[in-house]
UniProtKB/TrEMBL annotation:
<dbReference type="InterPro" id="IPR015505">
    <property type="entry name" value="Coronin"/>
</dbReference>
<feature type="compositionally biased region" description="Polar residues">
    <location>
        <begin position="654"/>
        <end position="673"/>
    </location>
</feature>
<feature type="compositionally biased region" description="Polar residues">
    <location>
        <begin position="725"/>
        <end position="739"/>
    </location>
</feature>
<feature type="region of interest" description="Disordered">
    <location>
        <begin position="1145"/>
        <end position="1167"/>
    </location>
</feature>
<comment type="similarity">
    <text>Belongs to the WD repeat coronin family.</text>
</comment>
<feature type="compositionally biased region" description="Basic and acidic residues">
    <location>
        <begin position="427"/>
        <end position="436"/>
    </location>
</feature>
<keyword id="KW-0677">Repeat</keyword>
<dbReference type="InterPro" id="IPR015943">
    <property type="entry name" value="WD40/YVTN_repeat-like_dom_sf"/>
</dbReference>
<feature type="region of interest" description="Disordered">
    <location>
        <begin position="638"/>
        <end position="740"/>
    </location>
</feature>
<protein>
    <recommendedName>
        <fullName>Coronin</fullName>
    </recommendedName>
</protein>
<feature type="compositionally biased region" description="Basic and acidic residues">
    <location>
        <begin position="573"/>
        <end position="582"/>
    </location>
</feature>
<dbReference type="InterPro" id="IPR015048">
    <property type="entry name" value="DUF1899"/>
</dbReference>
<dbReference type="Pfam" id="PF16300">
    <property type="entry name" value="WD40_4"/>
</dbReference>
<keyword id="KW-0009">Actin-binding</keyword>
<feature type="repeat" description="WD">
    <location>
        <begin position="75"/>
        <end position="117"/>
    </location>
</feature>
<feature type="repeat" description="WD">
    <location>
        <begin position="869"/>
        <end position="911"/>
    </location>
</feature>
<feature type="domain" description="DUF1899">
    <location>
        <begin position="745"/>
        <end position="810"/>
    </location>
</feature>
Amino acid sequence: MMRRFKASKYKNAAPKLKKHEPWVRDLVVGSYNCSGSFIKASAAFVAFNVQATGSQLGVVSLDAEGVAGSTLPILNTHSDLVTDFEFSPFEDGLLATGSADSTVKIWSFNNNNINDLSLLNPELVMSSKHRRVETVCFSPTAEYLLSFSAHNTIQFWDILYGKELLYDTDLHGDTIMSMSWSKAGSLLATCAKDKQVRIVDPRANVVTASAVGHENGKDSRVVWLGDSSFILTSGFDSSRMRQLFVWDTRSFEKPIKSLSFGSSTGILMPLHDPDTNMIFLAARGDSSIGYYEFAESDDFLTEGYRYNGDQTKGACLLPKRALKVMDTEVNRILQLTANSVVPIPFHVPRKSYIDFHHDLYPDTCSTNTTGSASVWMDGFTGTVSKMSLNPSANGGNLRVFKETLSVRKAKEEQRISKVIELPESEKYKKAVPEPRPRKKSISSGSSSSDEVAEAPPTGKFFPVPKPRVSSSTASSVLRTPSSFISSRMTADFTMRNSVPKDVDSGLYTVPTVEVETCNTETRNGSSDEFSLTNDNESEVLNNNNDQDQQSLTESNDNDQGSLKDPVSLNGNEVDHNTEDNKSALQLSTSDRRKLFENRAMTTPETCNLPATDGNGESFENRKPRMSVAERMKMFQQNSANSTGGSVPGEEDNNSSQANNSHPLTTNTHPKITSMSSEDSSSGVDEHGDLSGKEREPCPAPIAKPERKFTPPKQEPAPIVRKPESTSQPTSLTKPPTSNKRIDTVFGQVSKYRNYKAAALHKKMHLENLRNISTTCPGESELIQANPDRVAVPLNTPGGKVAIFELGTPGRQPDGVIPALVHGSKVMDFMWDPFDNSRLAVGDDSGKLWLWTIPDGGLKEQTNESDFTMAAHAEKIYFVRFHPLAQDVLATGSYDMMIRIWDLDARDEIVLIRCFDQIQMFCFAWSPCGQYFSTAAKDGKLRVYDPRADTEPIAIGQGPPGVRGGRVCWVLDGKYLIVAGFDRSSERQLHMYNASDLSKVATVSLDVSPAILVPFYDEDSSVLFLSGRGDSTIFAYDVIEGPPYLLPLSPHRCSGAHQGIAFLKKNACEVQNVEFAKAYRLTEVVIEPWSFTVPRVKSEYFQDDLFPPTRVLWEPTMTSAAWANGSNVCAKKISLKPSYMRSLGEVTGHRSEPPSSENGVKATNGKVSTPAPLPAAVIAASGAIGSALISNGAKKQQEKLEQQIKNILPLNLKLEQDDMEGVDEEEWDE
């Protein structure tokens, strides 16, 4: 009875809400069927499920204010629902996520990459053996120990080393719904669907206690109440009444306390604070959150203030390290609602808020622990240290960020390797406190053998590696870092300088490593090149062993870690007879590094000179290295000099003049020289990097002696030139030597690497869109556009497709949106490529609709189409027009058939049965229109020639994932690119040879459930990729040769998009260097986007970016001609306007034929090639860089200027000439 009147420090704790908008707003949170709480927090970040699928997590920093859903950082975690996730208790940026796709992933992020989460890759992926993951839980005491449950199994992993430690399969009878660790980290409490509550000892693989829990096994939760022996469970009884049980693990037959609440479908989620024993009860669908205080007494649970607000989707507690302790905030709940995240702080009212209240904040767990996953398996649980929340004691910043797991793993392995090398007597030496060694006397008479050597300046002892001498050699008890580094450094250099047996020793020449002074050591060879013999090598090793043994045994002669007769930093000898030099024998690591550099880089003739870089240039006077841009410019000039057609006798003079004119000459940079094609091919390795003789020495933690590599003389490798494409011949052949050299030395360089993507002005947007459908099948693109209008599906009954005119942008009027009504759900649709007013639609009833939009656009909703036909027996997968033939359309359906239609005759041309494909993901016509390809759920990629055979002409292995994909043809139909998934739901790009479907390249992007939709621009060979729900547009430059896919800079949009539709080339504004144009669909607006390449001389037509393009907006043949086997290629035209001059005409590299009066020059599939310019003009333009204009170009320029003068008469008369001024004679007055 006395418990009722006992005062509690937290009895008056009450929620305190702010009156402004929620912290995170405008979210889209769905209803998820799993056992998680949907929101978790660390001391730095908050993560929560977003979107209807729940496969993505929104991550927000606690410092952010007023975060909106459009600017929310999104982490693309899994391909299916994220069932549970949790932050590590030992660092604030380590997150573990479990999903219904049977995987658990580890993510690491910080404040630097929080805005680039869409590009983040997981550090570790763990499999739950093809079972849905239900719970994820970190150990409270053992770092890197992660446990997660899938069905009735529990797995324990060491995430540092990525290995499975335990796998319990026979302890539970049904699906595990909740887990909770004891505070000591040795036991685990679980609740399962078999209505049992268990206490599990995972290392012994036994159930120490079990009891019958709640009567209804639909859902339940369990939490261990701090360091006590009590646990708390929540669940339902047989009548769906919510219950709360308190269990004593010492007497586990039945609960010692039970509470009943009202009937509801939402499970109670208990949130427990072990420091204050405050328990919060939040339930899904409830608008109130209860507060209880736990105490080990008869009542156990005492109710406090209740919070009332919005309906709860999920809730979590903020770690104590993130609380505002000076405001007496004892806890903070983060509530996830249907569209926001609301912080609910609980404060204890106090009279004064100036001082820190120690009674409210006991010491809490810190992020430091003595346990880890590896030692936990050996029975050592570990202890977590305590920390104070007083800002004056901890400094105020309690957030902890650590390195990535891979970096920590490497450091841990290095530390363990050092411990393993220790002698048995030294491994546990640190456990015994050692006396502080007394300083050694400087006098020559102090040679007593019982004196202890001088300790390092820091006063710390270091672990000693196993000495590289025989076991009989005496070793010292103490060993300083200097002696360890000296012995290891010398032996390391000896090992590095050894020559392999299978390589000619004459190829390698290195300087001899000295161990004596410069005056006593001799070198073999000349001053430019030194040879290393086996005798010298053994002598160095013996000297090192002698010095190491001497430093270990004779502490009275030299200080530990010093070299025998060391040389000072200026190259002079050190006199051992003075007292000052005896105390200076203790050299630091940096001094020894400089000492070795001086010895390795100097010759006997220049022993007392400053160190040089091996080319006569001192390190102090050496100029900074050239930038990549300067080196590329130098190579371009040298390439032009070597191939520009100069006189043989003048070639050397020209190259020398070019070098002398450059501010960085060959003398200051001996690695940069004018190379011919033979030199360049021999000096560059197969990876495009410079060879050893052309690399500048890079500083290392321990300096290496410079190796001089003399390659054997060999015949120059023949230059293999790619055959020119016959479909798109170039107008001017560039010198292959120059291109080969630059691409090999600097890597593949794309002209579009600096492309810019930006939305056009807001006045060009289509706004006030309503009821846009986001639930169309994955085979649909959700938006189709042409230069006149755009079509998007609506999420309304009747299967409507809205049509918006691009000629009337701005805010769309309220009311009914003009749309096409189909009566059933729309599956896919596409504009006719040759008629901007014709639209084909396929619905889920198997019907094919053909519509013609009247001039001026739709004014109202209509259901009167041109014609409708029953194309398939089941719903349609895709609708695709032929790229060249008019009135040819292909459709695919769930009946596993592909039909090709003649829309003019309204008859079927080809029927292909695909019963072995399970489900067709995509369909793509080849550029020539003769073939098409499909990707299916059976993991196969197929190519068909529909007019020749109904069976595929090629079958290959496609992406291993089964979530969907897209296929497109690239490089004139020679290759196929498939965007799909791997088995761990990672999005990938696969490139195949179209002839035999052999894979040539694979690129991994990120993890996301959205299917990447590719668009390939033929002229620029740039591949754009975007996914539904993504905010990033990826881009790759596709080349015909390794690495095939050159990544360009991805562009991140302001918000998520539902789809992107690209226009054809005739819609681009070439005068603005726009090489692609698209329309981006969001939930409320359609934005036009422009993709441009920055150029300095943008007033000229960039003929290198805009080659003759294929006319894909005009048909080349009729449907009947195509059905009869005709193949007519598209003609090519120039996009150059008549009023613009091409850049090639100005620079002397004309690659474009002159345009006609209307700005377009068309030919029958071919482009006339002008005569190439003289080689002297090309060489002069490349070497000097000046824009030389040919005589014809000069005449055209003069003619243009004369025409401008005729149109615009020039008036050279000034306005002051008509004014009356002062006469000249009046100035004298």
